[in-house]
Amino acid sequence: MALTVKQIEAAKPREKPYGLKDDRGLYLQVTPQGSKLWRFRYWLDKKENRVSLGSYPEITLAEAREKREELRKQVAHKIDPVKAKKDETEARRNTFSAVAEEWFEKFSTVWADTHSETIRARLDKYVLPDIGHMPVGSVRAPDVLSVLRKIELQGHGETAKRVRLICGQVLRFAIASGLAEYDVTAGLRRALAPVKRGNFAAITDPNAFGGLLRAIEDYDGHFVTKQALRLAPLLFVRPGELRTMEWTELDLEKAVWNIPAEKMKMKRPHFVPLPKQAVEILKATQELTGTSKYVFPSARSRQRPMSENAITAALRRMGYTGDMMTCHGFRASASTMLHEKGYSSDIIERQLAHIEKNQLKFHGFFTTTDSSTTGGFLFCAAVRQHAFVRRLEKS
User: Fold this and answer.
1) N or C: which end of the chain has fewer CB within 10 A?
2) pTM for this model (two decimals)
3) Cα–Cα distance list, 217 to 211, 221, 226, 245, 302 (Å)
4) What is the pLDDT of residues 236-248, one digit of tens each?
């Protein structure tokens, strides 16, 4: 006789587990602790087997019967439900999505927050919706290329290249874990259209850059944004480091900015000697935002830093389009013109924090006091700070 809900509700625990039989192999096991567990008993190759279907009342009587019928169909086709369940669980663990999650969790601990957010967003937006469900070992080059082509069609060629690198890192992680045999993205390096680098557009002509510096001085927008704009060419740090600058990180008396490790890409503390022009800008800013955590707080909340788009929007307002100048472009401007001035490549790379093993970087600065020959763009050589930096290294 088939079970009824009334019988299930009335079932009480006993000293030993017991079962309430339903029909066609389905029964409810009642434990001494009072749990009520659905079980399905079946025979395959003349051997008795049992599989769990969940607990009551999370799985109702009607739902348990539906599951039973699904399993009976498997048995009729000589499919072992227990093995099929294990295979399904293992398949879920080995999907591209599951491996990507494990890879991200393991490696994001050493990334800067902004880098982690970017990688996470690209995975969620571009990759996982299309190939996340696939077993990582079965992902082939055409599967990844299909993802990349969609990004290209949206006009984001550079993003497509970076997504290919992300997929490659996930696949190489899968290879190390024994879940895949090949990094199929290696063969896609020439499959994407060449990209004209425009994400970090930069002005590298001294006269044109002088015009930009004068435009910044004449900018009549938000004061905090203007101050950040004025600092950008003096320090040429990464935009995320600039906009999240905190007052507690600054020692204006010693003219040093100590960027903590968690904000840096390689998770190492970074000391930035501040030129006198930067100190003057920061002292003027302190009068307005000194009570805030951030040097450049958001216009909407002093508890948050200014938005990623604030400086970019200001540049656009001044007439500098995306293919002319970007916030990140101040770094490229500095690198190009310093090299043209004949400064040591090693010092320039240190200024740009491109040497990972050295925790102390050098930073030059600009001044606009003379516009006769350079359009207002004159660098103070990083070597002039060399002795100061060496003293910091020894301290």
Assistant:
1) C
2) 0.45
3) 10, 11, 8, 21, 24
4) 888 888 999 999 9
